[in-house]
Specification:
It is a single chain. The chain contains 5 helices and no strands.
């Protein structure tokens, strides 16, 4: 993730749920390997409670793959007829990924003016 941000256990569990769900739906071999690598790191962090603070260090290709798959998971959570809990999870995941990518609320405004 772009900025250093400590992840809570519930954040890690939510990321793990999203990536493990989407991993079964990825058919590109390179993407699947990247997602598996991120999942392995998340599982290590979940199984080792002594690592505080929790930082997820991933390469730029892994970050891009994770962002794509988490966004796809969010779309599936918020499809027509989806539950309120699914929308809340999707919103939380988008905030996690957005914070990790270094984006902000004014990101679109800054891009508009080339900053």
């Amino acid at each position: 993730m772009g900025r250093q941000r400590s992840l809570t256990r519930s954040d890690l569990e939510l990321l793990h749920e999203a990536l493990s769900y989407m991993r079964r739906r990825v058919f590109d071999q390179a993407e699947s390997v990247r997602i598996k690598g991120v999942l392995d790191r998340i599982e290590e962090m979940l199984l080792d409670p002594t690592t505080e603070p929790r930082f997820l260090r991933i390469s730029p290709p892994e970050q891009e793959a994770m962002e794509r798959q988490v966004e796809s998971f969010c779309v599936e959570l918020t499809h027509r007829g989806g539950s309120e809990a699914g929308r809340q999870q999707a919103s939380r995941l988008r905030r996690l990924i957005g914070a990790g990518a270094g984006s902000s609320r004014l990101g679109w405004f800054r891009r508009l003016f080339g900053r």
